[in-house]
Structure formats: structure tokens, C-alpha cells
Amino acid sequence: MGKIILTGDRPTGRLHLGHYVGSLRRRVELQNSGEFEKIFIMIADAQALTDNFDNPDKIRDNIIEVALDYLSAGLDPSKSNIFIQSEVAELTELSFYYMNLVTLSRLERNPTVKTEIQLRNFETSIPVGFLTYPISQTSDITAFKATTVPVGEDQLPMIEQAREIVRKFNSTYGEVLVEPNALLPNNAVCSRLPGTDGKAKMSKSLGNCIYLSDTPEDVKKKVMSMFTDPNHLRVEDPGSLEGNTVFTYLDAFAKDEHFAKYAPDYKNLDEMKEHYQRGGLGDVKVKKLLINVLEEELSPIRARRAEYQKDIPAVYEILKKGTEVARAEAAQTLKEVKAAMRINYFEDTELIESQQKRFNG
Ligand code: TRP
How far is the CA of 89 from the centre of ligand 1 (A)? Predict the structure, then answer.
């Protein structure tokens, strides 16, 4: 059997560079590698509602933002099925059956959920839907028999939970589901891109994001105010790379070609880093390089976005078509699941015949 990808994002805002290096850029490469038989990219609106249930308009408005970000980053609807989670009702039905296979304490131990509960101050009143979203995420993955789930590091506990549910299902009812594997970013920097303020992670609530849809002016302004080495006061001073966000971003984005083009004094990033540590290289120069490097990556994305934005109904049509394909796929898996669970009463002619015999001899 061929390899199948499923992954997705919660539509709670525009996608930023953290999403891009952590997952989106890789998805586009995987899509174009031709290695995958099917690719499903899900806009996880139902999951987003588990902690935004009181603000459905936020989710509603961000579906198109995320779709535009996907398409402009290079996801190609002829190769990747982009769909909306809530429109595939089969996913909810699968979740209901998977709920029997997980204990409450197992959910409460999920490290990602634990952190999120703290972040949201849910400690004293956790919505059941929120606590159980790892089960729903298992449905997302297994409905498509995904072998490969490209995600950031923070999602590892979700994949582990999914694998456990798959094993439990298969051992209880028979081999129907496929155990998925996480596919992590290939380097540590990309797993966890810090915000422009040097804080742990890019996050909308911290206001430290560079968005894929930012204008060149926005990007420039944000890079110029980025956190560097607070002790690097004069150009001559030796600078430190530790926690120096500008260099972290260069680690994630810079290629050797960029140096020939924008900083010909250096062959590569290592040479530049050496100079910085030795002293004599100012932050502004490094920031200017980063602006150029980011622009190389972002300007084609921005250009594609501008094209797609001209025809928004066409973008919704892409989502609708993708959702139809996803629904057919999920329906097939649900059918197999129900048969394995012996709850396929009307489809099982043997059942009807045997009951007929039982009552009539
Ligand atoms: N939990 C993921 C996030 O917060 C989004 C998501 C929902 C997902 N369902 C998924 C990711 C299935 C991978 C597979 O980003």
C-alpha cells in the first residue's frame, strides 16, 4: 500500500513563519516529491472550536485565511486535497466509537493537552470537547489511513495517542486501522521557531509573529526590531549567538547562495557567525541580510496569494471539492470500522438470514 499523508491546522489566525518552517514548507516538498499516493490537508475548524466555542466567527473568518496561506505557500489542489474538518461528519462518528478505547486518565496525562489547559486557565472547568480532542485528532488521521503525519514536535503526544487507539481498535475488533507515524521537521530550529521578541514560540497572542501574508514593509519593520544579543552594544563588541533570534532565523532560512548574493564578504552562515562572535559585525547588517533572505522566500508566496485573492469563490470551490473527496474516503473507512465492530446491521445479509433462521428454524 502507498503512503498517505494527513495533516492540518486550526484556523484561528493567519499562518506565520513558525507554521511555515515547522510544517508548511515541508508539506509542499512532500507533495512535490511524488512519494505519496494521497495527501489530505485539513482545516481543523471543529478542533479549533474546542477552545473557541464561544467565538465561532473567529474560526469562520480564518478558514479562508488558512486556505489562502496553503495555496500561496505552494500546496496544489490537484495534488493535495484541502478540506474542512466539520464538513466530514464521518470524523465525528469515528470519534464516538474511539471514545470507548481511551481512559479519562490517559487523556489527562497527554502533555500537549496538559500545557494547553494551563495556558487557557481551564484547570477548574475543562470542556469535555477540549479534553477529548486527541480522540478527534485520531479520527482525522485514521479516517484517511494516513501513514505519515507531518507535524511539529508539540504534536508528538497526539500521534502517540492515535497509535495507541489504533492498536486497541485493531486488537479488539480486527485489523482495520493504520498506525500513523509523525514526520518531524528535519532540524531543531524548524521545530520551534522563536518569536521576533526571542520568546519561546511565535504566537498571535504574544504579537511576535511574522505572517506569510505580511507586506515587505511589515517584514522589514519586524526584523529591524528583532531581539538579538542585549550585550552587543557597539559593533566592535563580540556578539553572542545564544538566544540571538536573528541568527536563529538565519539558521532556518539562509542558504549558501544567499551569501553570494546579499553578503558576499562571507561564504556561508558559519563564516558570518564567526565574525559576529569575534566582534566587528553590527546587528543591522545581519538584520538586512535576514530581510533579503526572508523576502526571497516570501515574495513568491505573496504573489500567489495576490492571484488567489482575486477569486475568493474559486478558493471556496477548491475547499468544497477537496471536502467531497475527503468525505468519500472517510465514509469508506467508517464502513470498515462499523463492519469490524459488528454494527453494520443492514449491510450484513448474513446477520439477517441467521436471525431469520433463529426464529423460524
Ligand atoms: N492539533 C493540530 C494543531 O493544533 C491540528 C490538527 C488537527 C492536526 N487534526 C490533525 C494535525 C490531524 C495533524 C493531524 O496544529
Answer: 17
57, burial (CB in 10 Å: exposed 0-12, middle 13-18, buried 19+): exposed
Does residue 132 register a pLDDT over 80? Answer: yes
Q: Whose CA is nearest to atom 3 of ligand 1?
A: 9
6 CB under 6 A from ligand 1? yes
If you measure from the C-alpha of residue 65 to the centroid of ligand 1, how many angstroms do you get, rounded to a whole number? 17
Positive/negative CA dihedral, 214, 216, 218, 221: positive
DSSP annotation of 118 reads H
Going by C-alpha positions, the residue among 235, 248, 249 that lies closest to residue 278 is 235
- Ligand 1 and 7: CB distance under 6 A: yes
> 215 CA distance to ligand 1 centroid (A)?
28
Q: Find how far residue 315's CA is from the centre of its chain.
A: 20
Residues ≥6 apart with Cβ < 8 Å to 53: 127, 129
Q: Is the CB of 44 under 6 A from ligand 1?
A: yes
148: which strand partners?
A: 5, 181
pLDDT over threshold 90, residue 44:
yes
For ligand 1, what atom is nearest to the CA of residue 6?
Answer: 14
Does the pTM of the predicted model rise above 0.85? yes
Cell reading at 53: 466555542
Ligand 1 contact, 9 CB (< 6 A): yes
Q: Are 277 and 241 in contact (CB under 8 A)?
A: yes
CA 279 vs CA 82, 229, 232, 239, 295: distances in Å: 49, 12, 9, 6, 27
What are the helix and strand counts (H, E) for the chain? 18, 5
| Domains identified in the chain and CATH numbers | 4-192+312-355 (3.40.50.620), 216-308 (1.10.240.10)
Closest residue to atom 14 of ligand 1, CA basis: 7
> In the numeric block, which cell numbers belong to residue 303?
504573489
Q: Is the pLDDT of residue 219 over 80?
A: yes
Q: How many CA atoms lie less than 13 Å away from 272 in the CB half-sphere?
A: 26
